[in-house]
């Protein structure tokens, strides 16, 4: 793992959250993107060298909708940049982590992604991210 790629924050209303975080960070979001396969709309902020991803559910049965229903708005996941997501999935599986996506899938911001179950990471949902080249 190279670095924290971004921190994901679940929000009920992306438009309202964008206004709040624009005031907080003193800068506007740089991208809004829908990820239909996950039932989510995302908004990205750059804060120094760090990125924050806001996530709003677009379907009532999406993981973000379920998260907000259970825990409310807040930090949803921490994402880490990796060079070879398939090798990381294999390594972490051998280390007995519960990998939710044994095959990486396309995520937001031009990334391949896979998640580790919070049961195996002290309650923190971990996302692995690899830049899609080409």
UniProtKB/TrEMBL annotation:
It comes from the Bacteria. Belongs to the methylmalonyl-CoA epimerase family. GO terms for molecular function: metal ion binding; methylmalonyl-CoA epimerase activity. The keyword Metal-binding applies. Residues 3-131 form the VOC domain. GO terms for biological process: L-methylmalonyl-CoA metabolic process. This is Methylmalonyl-CoA epimerase. Pfam families: Glyoxalase_4. PROSITE patterns: VOC. Keywords: Isomerase, Metal-binding. Its EC number is 5.1.99.1. InterPro entries: Glyas_Bleomycin-R_OHBP_Dase, MeMalonyl-CoA_epimerase, MMCE/EMCE_epimerase, VOC_core. It comes from Jejuia pallidilutea. CDD domains: MMCE.
């Amino acid at each position: 793992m190279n670095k924290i790629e971004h921190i994901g924050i679940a929000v009920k209303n992306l438009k309202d959250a964008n206004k709040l975080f624009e005031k907080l960070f003193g800068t506007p979001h740089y991208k809004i993107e829908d990820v239909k396969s996950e039932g989510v709309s995302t908004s990205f902020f750059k804060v120094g060298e760090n990125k924050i991803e806001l996530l709003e559910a677009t379907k009532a049965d999406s993981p973000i909708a379920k998260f907000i229903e259970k825990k409310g708005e807040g930090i949803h996941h921490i994402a880490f940049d990796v060079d070879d997501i398939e090798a990381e999935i294999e390594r972490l599986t051998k280390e007995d982590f519960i990998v939710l996506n044994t095959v990486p899938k396309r995520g937001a911001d031009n990334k391949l992604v896979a998640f580790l179950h919070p049961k195996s990471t002290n309650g923190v949902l971990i996302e692995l991210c690899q830049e899609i080249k080409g």
